[in-house]
Amino acid sequence: MTAEKQQIQRVYDAVADPKPEAIVVHCSDPRFSVAFEQFIQNELGLKKGKFIPLVVGGGAGVLAHPEQLPKEFKFLKDRFEFYREAFPTVRRIILVNHEDCHYYDSIRQKILGFLGSKWQGPTVVAREDLGALSKIFFRLLGHLGMPMELYYARFADAARNKIAFEKVGA
């Protein structure tokens, strides 16, 4: 095989002896991916290896609806419990929802059966779900013994090119 045809195997850095401090749950929406990364590093002060990212469609939203979305709730619950055991350095859980979440559009019909006329659209519900999360979290996940931080990401300009984060709750 000629040298041109040989493929060079690339290698990448690993985190030696990781001691993550937090679990961060946010949506997989690519419109927000850069902002999430910057927010976690710059505002939360968590560098790579200092947090465990759980990136799932809808982010923390499934935790607000355990009865309507039991499989998705169980998925996150199981991960929290596993990571808490595997990494005892984890001391907090950070949950982020965002404006114009396509996830809420996709599950609208599931939740409509339960909420009926209370549904107010994706943006309102994604933000309101963060408020409901504190009660649900402590009722169903309080055994983890970790404080929870809630944030909401929204578009900060009319062109929808900039994103701002706000802390929700106390």
Structural summary, described in words:
The chain is an alpha/beta fold and 170 residues long. Helix 3 packs across helix 4. It has a five-stranded mixed beta sheet, with helices on both faces. The chain is built from four helices and five strands; from the N terminus they run E-H-E-H-E-H-H-E-E. It has one domain (22-168): Beta-carbonic Anhydrase, Chain A. Helix 1 (33-43) links the parallel strand 1 (22-26) and strand 2 (51-55). It starts with 21 loop residues before the first strand and ends with a strand.
Mind summarizing the main beta sheet?
A: 5 strands, mixed
What is the radius of gyration computed over CA atoms, rounded to a whole number of angstroms?
18 Å
Task: Determine the N-to-C terminus distance.
Answer: 64 Å
Shape: globular
Q: Into which percent range does the helicity of residues fall? A: 25-40%
Give the strand tally: 5
Number of helices: 4
* pLDDT averaged over residues: 85
CATH topology: Beta-carbonic Anhydrase, Chain A
**CATH hierarchy, class:** Alpha Beta
Could you give the topology of this structure?
Elements lengths: L21 E5 L6 H11 L7 E5 L14 H17 L5 E7 L3 H14 L6 H19 L7 E8 L7 E6 L2
Helix pairs in contact: 3-4
Keywords:
170 residues, alpha/beta, Beta-carbonic Anhydrase, Chain A, five-stranded mixed sheet, 4 helices, 36% helix, globular
